[in-house]
Amino acid sequence: GVVGTTLNRTQSTRENYVVQSTGAILLGPQKPQPTRSHDLLLSYTSDNLQANLGLFHQRLEDYISILFEFNTGQTLDGHELWMREDDLGNLTSNGIEIDWKWRLSDEWRVLGNYTYVQTKFDELSGTSSSGAPYDLLTAGPVATEDKWLTGIPEHICNFGITYFPSNRTPVSVHYRGWNGAWGRQLVTDSGYPISMEFGPEHFVDVAVDLDDIPFKDARVQIYARNIFNNEAVIPKTPNEGLTQGNGVEFGVGLSYTF
To answer: Of the candidates 120, 116, 121, which has an alpha carbon nearest to the alpha carbon of residue 54?
Structure first.
């Protein structure tokens, strides 16, 4: 087993500055943004099985976010107050990760992983004329009314199985799914976004690897992703929020070993 602890300061304070294109002023954050992480990793390895179990706790203090202040009439040093970067509050994330690789026989391999995570603000200290804190990069809402961080699924699962036939052309099937991702969606009746929990969603991919094609030591992979055409909302990183996924994806990849 391995135990780890880290402390990082990811952003320092910044002075207020004027946006030259608009003449408006942006207030900078007043505190740094330290992160404290603690994790425990347990591993098991045998001739046919490799498995890991990880527990983690992360605390991000004074999460920096955008608070818009459009059309409020507020000014500072003769400039209209446009938006401000504020210390939103402390964010805590706790979770567990399990992953494994298992050789069932010469022909069959299975692998997978599962993650359970809860990410929530202790308190939301920032307020603005728009009524919600927004992400620093995308200007998308960063938290729900109940203080859950948006765009992070509570459950994430991946499972793959690969078959190696006698001609050594492996065929793989991969399942990926998630559930419990909070986001904000525009509601037509009110015209304002409300917090909603998305999921569960399920996706299946397939791939075939061809060795020594088109020449020796080369490999061609032919793949299809989302073969059942699940047009679901797909959570990405916190900065990217929730994104709509559409259609089946087909592709060909070429790799070469020197």
So the answer is: 116
